[in-house]
Amino acid sequence: MQPVNDISPKESSELTVCLIQALNDAIDSGTDEPSIVANIAKNIPAYLKKSSRLGSFNFSSGSIANVPGSIFVHQTPKVSYTGIGKTKSGQPKSIEVGDLLLLSTIQSNTGEVSRRAMLFQAKMFESIPVSDTGNSEQHKLYNEWPIFHYLRSTRDLNGMYRWICDLDLHGSAKYLLLKDTVSPLGGWPHWLHSRLPDASALTANPTDPLSHYFCFVHEIYNFILGNAGKEFKVLNKKEYDDLSTQHSDIVKNFHVSGIIQPICPWQEGWSLLINDLLRITSQKRTRLMGSKTRKGARGVNTSSYKGEESNKVMSILNKFGFFSEPPSTHEADDEEPSIGLNIIEFTLISNERFRD
Fold first, then answer.
1. Which residues partner with 119 through β-bridges?
2. Per residue in 208-245, pLDDT tens?
């Protein structure tokens, strides 16, 4: 299903300018790739709520877009796969699953609900085309999605196998390319082909070499309106536990026996991956903060609801306890790098009908 969500030129400009300001401020105040991505996760909810009435974009079409919150979790889960390189000690390398996860819940005017996600691996760049992503193992994961297993995640997930066998992953698991300074020539509208080389933030399909360069602001714009991302299913604990174990056992048995491609239902692996990341981050949370808080880049950073109860009910993050459980007071060591998984969530109550 694909929702049709058209907004007026004025509303489009307001939303676009808001996203550009959030992104430019994130780049200006960041010192490196992890800090810029963390700033993006903090800024987008804060800027959208600041510029919109009661924290919502109430479009003339009748659709309502909300930003429940953003989360930063210190330390991202790591995975490994057969054929990956070795460390100096001779052990298989482990790589991050991603740096930024976008989540969306879309409710149509008939009450039908769709969940979508996009996953990004961030990388600094100077110009396009990008000839070297800097990590061939990470590039292979996003380009080919070989069978992989978790190494550094949670006790329950360590050693669990996954195979993401969907056919259209390149549109939803992409590279996020960032410059370390805001380009004076990269302003709105970023997505015009002639302006792409000057943009400060782009996305790219993880082909070899990278392809389909696209404006990051336009990517988020489309995602907020329900016109981007890949559908997934939010699994309750029993559904997740049963499917996680069953999927892992089947994939592992096929993999060990030498059969390269086990048979699994489409979207099963993608849904499991997104649920994995949500459950890992919910268990690794260390501190919750309001979206307007500028300090505390480590731990968990979430924005508040400000009484938006209907939005809270729709929220995926709320279903995983991010906004109901009391925070821990643990702080990460200041000498540890600010590397982690950033999550931004959007909800859309759409007045447009879904189309196939």
1. 101, 173
2. 999 999 999 999 999 998 899 999 999 999 999 999 99
How many CB atoms lie under 10 A from the CB of residue 91?
10
Contact yes or no for 160/248 (Cβ under 8 A):
yes
Q: What is the number of structural domains in the chain?
A: 1
How far is it, in rounded angstroms, from Cα 285 to Cα 297? 13
In this structure, what DSSP letter does residue 327 have?
P
Cα–Cα distance for residue pair 338/342, rounded to 1 Å: 11
Q: What is the distance between the alpha carbons of residues 142 and 152, in angstroms, rounded to a whole number?
A: 18
Nearest one of 324, 321, 163 to 247, comparing CA atoms:
163
- The domain of 133 spans 2-355
- C-alpha span between 227 and 221 (Å, rounded): 9
Task: List all residues 6 or more positions away from 27 whose beta carbon is below 8 Å from its beta carbon.
Answer: 36, 39, 178, 179, 180, 181, 182, 200, 201
- Any long-range contacts for 80-88 (C-beta under 8 Å, 24+ apart)? 80/148, 80/149, 80/151, 81/141, 81/146, 81/147, 81/148, 81/149, 82/146, 82/147, 82/255, 83/146, 84/137, 85/136, 85/137
Nearest Cα residue to 23 out of 45, 4, 53: 45
**Residue written as tokens 């059969």?**
259
Please name which of 261, 195, 284, 267 lies closest in space to residue 232, comparing C-alpha atoms.
267
Among 82-86, 146-150, 151-155, 276-280, the range scoring the smallest mean pLDDT is: 151-155
pTM of the model: 0.85
Residue whose structure tokens are 């189309």: 355
* CB distance 169 to 146 below 8 Å: no
Q: Give the strand order in the sheet containing 161-162.
A: 95-96, 78-81, 148-152, 161-162
Q: Cα separation of 311 and 245, whole Å?
A: 32
Cα 170–Cα 171–Cα 176 angle in degrees, nearest 5: 85
